[in-house]
Write a structure and sequence with these properties.
Blueprint: H1 2-143, E1 157-164, H2 171-179, E2 187-189, H3 195-199, H4 202-207, H5 211-217, E3 225-237, E4 245-257, E5 263-275, H6 278-294
Parallel strand pairs: 1-2, 1-3
Antiparallel strand pairs: 3-4, 4-5
């Protein structure tokens, strides 16, 4: 019994030690497992922290790179905008310069055209002036024998022109009228007008106070006064003396102030003469007309 108990005690002790060993091994295993688990947990947490840090670093790097990229893009945009503005400014300056050049060219072209037009105008005006001067000279040469002035500071001057009803200049009769003014100390001339002045009606227009005609001929510089007139002669025969011819002469004219073209004195005379031929009768009538003119008191000489 004691052996059994002893054996039992031995077995119990053995089993108890075995259990303790098992418990120790279990505890050690648990500790080891816990340590491994905790180590793995720490490792996982470290990995997670490392991964998070890596993610954070990567995100920060990406954010930095994005910021740098945005900054680079912004800088590039700024550079592009500055380049665009500079290009636009250059284009604007070129346009302004081109406009200035075009405007200057336009002004120069306009000035050239103006100068050419002015030169042409002057040339045309000179040609017109020369043409008018030539026409005026031709006109004067057609109607005046001379442009020598009769005017004098000491004597009054008068130019005389007489035409018949056929518009023919009667120079002989005009010379006789001119001689009437010699005693009055008047410088008179009947040699100023040409036959064309009577034929073309110039004398008649002047007698009608045509100031334009007086101006075109420059008569104001040639004589102080103009005595102009025309006459008509009608012939008849005496019933009792058939060989005798009577000439009845009608003279109409006037004295004109050449500077103004004003009619100073109106002249109207009737005279008759007899002769055996028309010329003789007409000459006699003219003699009587000359006597009437000689007896006239010339009012213009008193002014």
């Amino acid at each position: 019994m004691d052996n059994d108990n002893l054996q039992l005690a031995k077995n119990f002790g053995f089993h108890f030690r075995y259990v303790l060993i098992l418990l120790g091994v279990g505890v050690v295993a648990a500790v080891l497992l816990g340590t491994v688990w905790f180590s793995k947990k720490l490792q996982n947490e470290a990995k997670e922290r490392q991964a998070a840090e890596i993610s954070r670093i990567e995100a920060a790097e990406k954010a930095r790179q994005l910021a740098e990229e945005q900054q680079r893009q912004a800088e590039q945009q700024r550079i592009d905008e500055q380049t665009r503005l500079q290009a636009e400014e250059i284009r604007r300056q070129r346009q302004v310069e081109q406009q200035r050049i075009d405007e200057q060219a336009r002004v120069q072209a306009a000035e050239i055209r103006r100068q050419e037009a002015e030169t042409k105008r002057r040339e045309d005006a000179e040609r017109s002036r020369q043409l008018a001067e030539n026409q005026r000279r031709e006109y004067i040469a057609r109607y005046l024998r001379s442009t020598n002035s009769l005017k004098s500071s000491e004597k009054a001057s008068i130019a005389i022109g007489v035409a018949n009803h056929k518009r023919q200049l009667d120079e002989a009769f005009a010379a006789q009228v001119s001689a009437l003014f010699a005693p009055a100390s008047v410088k008179a001339s009947s040699a100023l007008f040409t036959p064309a002045s009577a034929a073309d009606g110039v004398l008649q227009r002047i007698l009608q106070s045509d100031a334009g005609e007086i101006s075109r001929l420059g008569l104001a510089s040639l004589a102080d006064h103009l005595l102009l007139g025309s006459y008509r002669v009608e012939f008849s025969t005496n019933g009792e003396l058939q060989s005798v011819i009577t000439a009845r002469l009608r003279f109409d004219g006037g004295v004109i102030r050449s500077e103004s073209g004003a009619l100073l004195e109106s002249l109207s005379f009737d005279a008759s003469g007899a002769g055996f031929v028309n010329d003789q009768a007409e000459a006699a009538a003219k003699e009587r007309l000359l006597k009437s003119l000689a007896a006239r008191k010339w009012l213009f000489l008193e002014k």
